[in-house]
Amino acid sequence: MNLAFLLHIYQPPNQDGKIVKEIAESSYLPLIKSIKRNQNINITLNIPLSLTHQLHKNGYDKFIKDLKDLYEAGRVELTSTGAYHPLLTKIPPQLAEKEIILNEYGLGYHFGKDKGFEGEEAILIKNVNGIFPPEMAVNDSLLELLDKMGYSWVAVDEAAIPSKELEYNPVYNFKDLNIKAVCRHTGLSNILSFKRDTDIDDFIDYTLMLRQKGTDLVVALDGEFFGHHHKEGIYVFETLVNILVSLGVNLTTVSELVSKVDEITIDGLRDSTWGADEEKMQSGNAYPLWDNPEIPLHKLLWEVLNKVAESASEESVGVRGDSHLNGDEIFDYKTFPIWDLEKLEEIKNINLKNHLYENILLLQSLNSDQFWWASNIKVGEKEMFDSEYIKKSLEVYLKYATVTQNEDLIKFIQQKSIEITKELASMA
């Protein structure tokens, strides 16, 4: 039996540095240490640029180096994603593409090479075969975009598979596309996601039952479970790994699993997320924590995001700059961390600096967390509501609009901010 752990670790771009450090110490560092120590496990990891940059900014370069070493040794497979964790299905395709391209550039910067084949300045990253769409939000339009971008596989939840008559299979393919869908086993993944004790018999028993059916598995969840969401999570992880290995389960990467298992052909994917169970899917609510028609804050925040995205599309904003920006100084930023707003001050070309600054603010503003923390829905033992984070998100929108000098957009965001603030006050 092959089992692939696909772990997703992430913090939003405007996260408090103290929280980043707290989670790094309780989860990220112990998890990487555990993987380094246990030679019997290979995993697939999704780490967006948003988190990697914050770890660098907060002094965790040793973590980045250790992860790079594991990646180079083939022990950890890295996936691509959206740089700032947007719902890729809910933003214009050109912005989704820019989020993904920027993230791959960040992967190359932190975990790849900074020299080309002939020694020239360049960012190179190898073996990024798969992509983890934030919140596992997928639909057919995104699938086609990812196929055109050359990805071999995309991670999806079981909710994305159209036919409920099919038994779980980890890999699906499509008649007219090269990309495959790698499907997490929702039930098994959720056993871990919501576990708050150290008893893993339920997970092991379920795994052994599936092994009797000849089923290979993908288990996907937030990596923060191990040590942050669950204080004994690292113990759970290590115990789980040791027992699975002792039972002869091959703990492998997703790409390795894809190369070994038989695929099932399907016509396409359902518009879905990993936050929607079948009951919600049947009611047409595929985004219960991010775009719920019963939540006024969601409606207001989407009005802001859509207006910003519309404005960006009208201005044809790019990520890496345009030739017309070349002035007295042609800045070579082929290996420059353009996402680091502080380092942008090193660029003397004002037009280029402002162009990059504007683009990064735009992509940061699209993150899904603003909707998550506006949902006010209970997940586990915690209410998903944080008024301060929502206010921070509005500040990023306004900062972006101010940099673009778009007076209509500034006024629109200011007006919507008043409405959102009133709604937040009513919920206090």
What is the CATH-assigned architecture of the largest domain?
A: Alpha-Beta Barrel
The low-confidence parts are 317-325
Sheet-strand content, in percent, reads 5-15%
Mean pLDDT: 93
As an assembly, this protein is single chain
From the N-terminal CA to the C-terminal CA, the straight-line distance is 50 Å
Bulk shape:
globular
The major pleated sheet works out as: 5 strands, parallel
- Radius of gyration, Cα only, in angstroms? 21 Å
At the fold tier of CATH, the topology name of the largest domain is 7-stranded beta/alpha barrel
Counted up, domains total 2
Per CATH, the class of the largest domain reads: Alpha Beta
Tally the beta strands.
14
Helix count equals 15
Q: State the helical fraction.
A: 40-55%
Helix and strand element order: EHEHHEHEEEHEEEHHEHEHEHHHHEEHH
Structural class: alpha/beta
Polypeptide structure, described:
- The protein has 428 residues and is of the alpha/beta class.
- The chain folds into two domains: 2-282, Alpha-Beta Barrel (7-stranded beta/alpha barrel), CATH 3.20.110; 296-427.
- It contains 15 helices and 14 strands.
- The protein has helices at residues 17-37, 49-57, 61-72, 93-111, 140-148, 186-193, 201-212, 233-246, 254-258, 278-282, 296-314, 350-365, 369-372, 387-404, 407-427; strands at 2-8, 43-46, 76-78, 113-115, 121-124, 130-131, 153-156, 171-174, 177-183, 217-222, 250-252, 264-266, 378-379, 382-383.
- Strands 1, 2, 3, 10 and 11 form a five-stranded parallel sheet that branches.
- Helix 12 (350-365) packs antiparallel against helix 14 (387-404).
- The longest helix has 21 residues, at 17-37.
- The model is unreliable at 317-325 (pLDDT under 50).
